[in-house]
Predict the 3D structure of the following.
Amino acid sequence: MGIVEEHAAAAETDFIIYTGMFCPFCTAVKRFLPNKGMTFSEFNMDEIDGLRQQVVSETGHRTVPVVIDVRNEQPIFIGGFDETQVYLR
């Protein structure tokens, strides 16, 4: 089981998001999700050693935020902020 699956299994929220410091798109997604009535758990990749490499390895997504829908049994990788806006239209 990878780190994304571990975080998804432990989450009691609708989404998990992987963020970075000083990231305007991370701030935007953290405002956007609650405005859509969604909850999220945040993991800052700048604060947790090795997390960035694990998330990139598992998702192929190299920029932040990395948004994962964990409302269903299987986590669904969405992408970044732009993809999340489209996903939740």
Remarks:
- The chain has one domain: 3-87.
- The longest helix spans residues 24-35.
- The beta strands are 15-19, 40-44, 66-69, 76-79.
- The first strand starts at residue 15 and ends at 19.
